[in-house]
Amino acid sequence: EHNRIVIELSKVNPHWDDEKLFQEGKHLMAAIIQHITYNEFLPMILGKDMMQKHSIILEKHGYFDGYNPKVDASVTSQFITASFRFGHSLLPSTIERWSPNHKYIASQRLSEMLRQPYDLYKGGWCDQYIMGLCNQVAQAMDDAVSQEVTN
Question: What is the distance between the alpha carbons of residues 55 and 45, in angstroms, rounded to a whole number?
Answer without folding.
Answer: 15
